[in-house]
Automatic annotation (TrEMBL):
Entry protein name: TetR family transcriptional regulator
GO molecular-function terms, A-Z: DNA-binding transcription factor activity; transcription cis-regulatory region binding
PROSITE patterns in UniProt: HTH_TETR_2 (PS50977)
Residues annotated to bind DNA: 30-49
Domain HTH tetR-type, residue spans: 7-67
Amino acid sequence: MSSRNAAATRQRILEHARRQFARHGYAATTVKGVADAAGVSPNLITRYFGGKDGLFLAATRTEIPVVDSFDGDRSALGSRLAASIVQRWFAAAEEDPLLALQRASGERPEAAEALAAFLDTNSLEPLHRYLRGSGLDDADARDRAAAIDAFVLGVSTRLRVLRSELGDPAELQAWLSTTIQRLADG
């Protein structure tokens, strides 16, 4: 198999794994199920990823471009963050690695720890730095960042994990925007 075909096969496996982990969680997703969906042998998943744990780790690697929302004044932070959040939730609904991590965090302590560490590094700390840079003292910036982070995670869990129903994107964005802005303003 050429390296191009191997890379394409690996990518196809990851796409199916992301979808299944996000939709069904860690426990209900099987190597055989992912292999069948991707049209490959389960042995290939073992060879590429070392098994289910390695596949899960590879499938849940992600980024959240929270810093993209920091270009501008704090008075419009809520609207910029809400637009970014809603775009992600609707665009990658069935394949979002963050959703897979959220669903697995109740089943696997390692997933919960990975999600917490990921959010601290990619959401909470950058938000804290942005708010501090916008003129808030360190403690106030940290508290507001923590409130926004907890709010967004709570809404995500409620709508994406427990309900799997996001509703109308424009209404959701408006509500998130207003609420995030209130938290940012203190």
